[in-house]
Design brief:
The protein has about 400 residues and is α+β, with helices and mostly antiparallel strands. The chain contains eleven helices and 13 strands. The protein starts with 7 loop residues before the first helix and ends in a 6-residue tail after the last helix.
């Protein structure tokens, strides 16, 4: 059930070595981070222009929604003041006046025809507002899709630490949101800077394993809770590792796949009998990686020192970027995680065209073990003893009696 970019047995043969914390500066870090800081000035400027072009659409949708709420509540104050130069807003103002007159007539002579006239007038205008919202949303989606490349180019800048001197040099002839932040003397919330590229590699941040609450429905209608996560950062390498239930609809799987998931739960001793869903405890991996800093060819998520069957997941390094993976966890991996064994991300360089030689370690980034045993144990008990099963039946009731 593991996903790997290269054969796991090959990696094990290549890496019969103990990993040590990275001490030497990767030889391409200065070049990579200098290029990032320079590129972010332009890409964030383009993103700001895109956001500015989209803002009128968001404001228009917000205003249309306010008009609809005002009509639904029959309260002018919900949308006042009105722009009478806007045909739709003018129509809403005229509707309030006409509806008020109809209401007075209805109070004097409560005829069903007057009540129906009020209802039809309101529904016609509400339909017009909804149609306008659909039109504006369509235009917004079209512009957002056209700007997808701009957002993609800016992705390496989000949350990244940049080099102040490089940014200021690139800002000489450019207006960009990052320029004012680089010129400021006080600490900025949105952007982080160092004075020299080499200082980026001195930044280390570690978060403890988070407490796992019960499964719940979030405000945006998505499933939340029932997970424990930890994060680590070394320079602009950011690594998140989580344990959470993988929940799938039975109708999206064939009988063989359903049997496989059920057999896995039976082997783990987990209670789960929701008739619409299948479940497996899973590892969720998310890593934001710079372009190769020291010629690395692969990233590995693993336990221990890679002297045995330690590998959880691997991927080719390519040009870096955002790496995400979700995979069912084996019984062995769950046992090791709940026992507090450390999980790490390691970048290696596998020599081309050579066989049965040691790969070179470029750097390794461990996850902090603080609260690991406790919070992983709590979550596994919640999955094993039926807590998740019961909460899912409440959130997604089984069909039938």
């Amino acid at each position: 059930m593991k996903s790997s970019a290269i054969p796991l047995f090959f990696l094990v043969l290549l890496l019969p070595m103990a990993l040590e914390a990275q001490e030497e500066l990767p030889d391409r870090l200065v070049a990579v981070e200098t290029a990032r800081s320079r590129a972010c000035v332009e890409s964030l400027a383009r993103l700001a222009e895109l956001d500015a072009s989209l803002e009128p659409y968001f404001l228009r949708l917000e205003r249309l929604n306010a008009l609809g709420v005002a009509m639904a509540l029959e309260s002018r104050e919900e949308a006042a003041p009105f722009d009478r130069t806007d045909p739709l807003e003018d129509a809403v103002v005229r509707w309030f006046s006409a509806d008020s007159a109809l209401a007075v007539r209805y109070l004097a002579d409560p005829q069903d025809a007057l009540r129906e006239e009020r209802r039809e007038a309101r529904n016609l205008l509400l339909d017009r507002i909804r149609a306008t919202m659909v039109e504006v949303s369509s235009e917004l989606d079209e512009k957002a899709r056209a700007g997808a490349d701009i957002e993609l180019a800016a992705q390496p800048c989000f949350g990244a630490v940049m080099v102040r001197s490089v940014v200021l040099e690139a800002c000489a002839n450019t207006t960009s949101p990052v320029c004012d932040a680089a010129r400021a003397t006080e600490r900025q919330e949105q952007f982080r800077f160092v004075e020299e590229p080499e200082e980026i590699w001195n930044i280390e941040e570690y978060g403890p394993w988070s407490p796992p609450g019960p499964l719940r429905m979030s405000q945006d209608g998505e499933m939340a809770g029932a997970r424990t996560s930890a994060r680590a950062r070394l320079g602009n390498v950011v690594f998140h590792f989580s344990l959470a239930p993988l929940i799938l609809a039975r109708q999206e799987l064939d009988e063989e796949e359903i049997a496989m998931y059920q057999a896995n739960l039976d082997s783990l001793g987990f209670t789960f009998d929701h008739p619409l869903l299948v479940m497996a405890p899973a590892f969720e991996i998310r890593a934001s990686m710079p372009p190769p800093l020291g010629g690395e060819t692969h990233y590995i998520i693993h336990f221990g020192d890679l002297s045995g069957d330690d590998i959880i997941w691997s991927a080719e390094a390519g040009s870096g970027g955002l790496f995400q993976a979700l995979m069912p966890a084996s019984d062995t991996d769950l046992t090791r995680l709940s026992a507090g064994e450390q999980v790490s991300l390691t970048a290696i360089r596998v020599p081309e065209g050579e066989e049965e030689v040691e790969a070179d370690l470029v750097y390794t980034l461990p996850i902090l073990q603080l609260n690991q045993e406790t919070n992983v144990g709590i979550l596994l008990a919640y999955l094993r003893e039926g807590g998740l099963n019961d909460d899912l039946k409440t959130l997604i009731p089984p069909e039938g009696p």
